[in-house]
Amino acid sequence: MEKFGFSLQKARVINYDSNDRSIVEYVLEREPSLKLCIECGCCSAACTTGNFTDFSLREMHILLKRGENNEVRNKIKKCMLCGKCILVCPRGVNTRNVVFLAKQAFQKYSAHAV
Amino acid sequence: MVNEGKKRVWSDYQKEIADDHFFYVRSCIRQSFYPGSEQFFLNFLRNDLGKDVYENPSHTTCTGIGYHGDIVPFSTTQTVVARHFALMKESGYKNIAISCVTSFGIYTEILETWKHFPEELEKTREYLFKATGREFDIPENMAHTSDIIYKFRNEIAAKIKYPLINKQTGKPLKVVEHIGCHYAKMFPKHGVGGAEFPRVLSGMAEAWGGEVVDYPERRHCCGFGFRQYLVQANRGYSLSNTVKKFESMRPYEPDLVLTNCPGCNMFMDKWQYTAKEMEGMTFGSNGQSIPVLTYEELAGLVLGYNPWDLGLQYHMVQSEPLLRKMGIEINSEDKYRTKDGRQMPIPQNLINA
Ligand code: SF4
Ligand code: SF4
What we know:
The complex is a heterodimer of chains A (114) and B (353). With 114 residues, chain A is mainly alpha-helical. Chain A has helices at residues 22-30, 42-46, 48-52, 57-66, 69-75, 84-88, 95-108. Chain B has 353 residues and is α/β, with parallel strands linked by helices. Chain B has two domains: 15-145, Glutathione S-transferase Yfyf (Class Pi), Chain A, domain 2; 160-334, 3-Layer(aba) Sandwich (Rossmann fold), CATH 3.40.50. In chain B, 45% of the residues lie in helices and 8% in strands. Chain B is built from 16 helices and eight strands. Chain A binds chain B through residues 1-2, 4-11, 13, and chain B through 232-237, 239-240, 243-244, 247, 274-275, 277-279. The complex binds iron/sulfur cluster (2 copies). One iron/sulfur cluster binds at residues 43, 46-50, 57, 79-85, 95-96, 99 of chain A.
């Protein structure tokens, strides 16, 4: 790279044309209740992992739906699959299954292997 | 909507452009970067159309770059512009023709300020009189030079030699037009088509046979942004804006970018070089960059002027791919030769050459 004394910042627009929605599609097919999520964040508030780390299940849901998988791929490993989030979700989303299926999808598509 | 109604609505988006007797004001950077543009404008108006265009040698900068860079206070800018109006009054002209969109933005901002805050106008009259002993009138008509070319676009179309058609495929060339933020975004009524339907460049491109590309970031900034650029460490903001715009137009494979403002032209041209050097990015078809032309350069090309007389070789992105598509014959040996036949130094690392 030439040294110009400044650099190029990547655009922060959400580009649905180039983003990869294959992971969320895999999850939605098997756990359609994710469609009901209103991104209220109750799950994040109840989450023990979220209490001690920067993990937020709501954030995972948002990023998955946008097809921004890179961050989700690593962060989602932090979930302990304890299921506390299911108890508080006002929309009845089977959140633990969402996490489980997302992990499975990352494993399944070799390009995304965890 | 019936045709009648459409016409009435559209008339609100029109501006009155004077027909003759222009007091021409120069830009700071245009003559150095795109010398052929100004020459074309003056020559076309004076010699081809027989119009009266007067240029006063005492005219100075409008302070626009300093004003938007936060180093010139607004009262100073108003007084400098008032001095230009005084020169115009002394020379006996009433129609001003401004050749830079930054200046055009400054002039419109000042005229609107004086309309809404008459006390600013009085203060400026006083400052100018105390400093120079001059007095001024507000122009009767204010046009950007592109407005004037737009007004005479059909006269150009009537004499067209190389329409904007791809000779190899017979299809219209795809033109990205960039009118510049300060042309009509701030004070829409001063621009042809207002802020919503700017017609000034698209009108020209279509009149000369081209097809205008409507892409998502069509109205996005060219990246100049003044403050973003003037401090070196901030230039990444400027470049990132330009790259965002070019990435958005890339899928449409435009054949050229047509600009309204000398600043936009500089950034859309030179940042393509920077993006290529930094990240290896190109935005045109076949891994090439997109030539960026001013409206006068394009008008000159379609009329059959020699591209080297129009100064196309002074751009960073070279126009040869476009010239080939238009079927314009070029002599590469003359590219860097002066009129009296001397060889000029040949620049290195040019794009598309
Ligand atoms: S609690 Fe339920 S609705 Fe709220 S963000 Fe979590 S999954 Fe979505
Ligand atoms: S299942 Fe995962 S996301 Fe839900 S509360 Fe437990 S650790 Fe948090």
